[in-house]
Amino acid sequence: MFAFHESLSRVDLAFTDRHGGESTGPWASLNLGAGNGDDEATVRRNVAAAVRALGADPSDAHLMRQVHGADVRVVASGAPPAAHPEADALVTARPGAVLVVRVADCLPLVLADDDAGVVGVAHAGRKGVVLDVATATVEAMRDLGARRITAWIGPRICGRCYEVPEQMRADVAGRLPVAWSQTSWDTPALDLAAAAAEQLDKAGVHVVDLADDLAVCTYEGETDFYSYRRQGVQSGRLAGLVRVRP
Ligand SMILES: [Zn+2]
């Protein structure tokens, strides 16, 4: 169910793996994303199971229609969970609200100020990193009263696997030099996690990269993770989840 799960004094957060759900075939088993051919009712049950495993009520889950942008939505009091806003980040200071970001290879970012009780999630693929959705999320959390923010970078494709055309690497690394990378098979690549970590560090955020402790490359981790690069359009989706306990 969870590749990583932590409960702080006020905040619960987790990143899922692909185990413990009801999906079968290429989506087996904890696919949390729709629109990839999997049965939508099964996906809803999987999302509910992940939210319950966090200790929360599935009716409190807030998901997004992610579009590789940098728009941040605030989940305010009384926001209807069923309305999936078009956004790539969610923030809230509302206890009980579970924020969910879904990915397969892109970076799932979970952020929290455990003292202030302010949390956020962000979806950062190549476009999101270039647009700096990470810093936009941090600023939106500060508007809600966050001061000392920690960000967790969850399972994603690593800089040794994320192959891109030479020109794309040149364009991105021209803006974000730390993103320059080479695959393990010696072709041009990008290290998006390194770039996001640098953005978060510059924004004054403490960064915890799960790759420092766990094997979390989605492309290499066929047993435990989904990977869009490896599985194509039928790829399932992992999630990062966070809430302030009610
Ligand atoms: Zn890798």
TrEMBL record:
The UniProt record lists the keyword Metal-binding: yes
Catalysed reaction equations from the record: S-methyl-5'-thioadenosine + phosphate = 5-(methylsulfanyl)-alpha-D-ribose 1-phosphate + adenine; adenosine + phosphate = alpha-D-ribose 1-phosphate + adenine; inosine + phosphate = alpha-D-ribose 1-phosphate + hypoxanthine; adenosine + H2O + H(+) = inosine + NH4(+)
Database matches in Gene3D superfamilies: CNF1/YfiH-like putative cysteine hydrolases
GO molecular function: copper ion binding; hydrolase activity; S-methyl-5-thioadenosine phosphorylase activity
Keywords: Copper, Hydrolase, Metal-binding, Transferase, Zinc
InterPro entries: Cu_polyphenol_OxRdtase, Cu_polyphenol_OxRdtase_sf, Cytotoxic_necrot_fac-like_cat
Annotated SUPFAM superfamilies: CNF1/YfiH-like putative cysteine hydrolases (SSF64438)
Role: Purine nucleoside enzyme that catalyzes the phosphorolysis of adenosine and inosine nucleosides, yielding D-ribose 1-phosphate and the respective free bases, adenine and hypoxanthine. Also catalyzes the phosphorolysis of S-methyl-5'-thioadenosine into adenine and S-methyl-5-thio-alpha-D-ribose 1-phosphate. Also has adenosine deaminase activity.
Family according to the record: Belongs to the purine nucleoside phosphorylase YfiH/LACC1 family.
Annotated PANTHER family: PURINE NUCLEOSIDE PHOSPHORYLASE LACC1, UNCHARACTERIZED PROTEIN YFIH
Entry protein name: Purine nucleoside phosphorylase
Underlying gene: pgeF
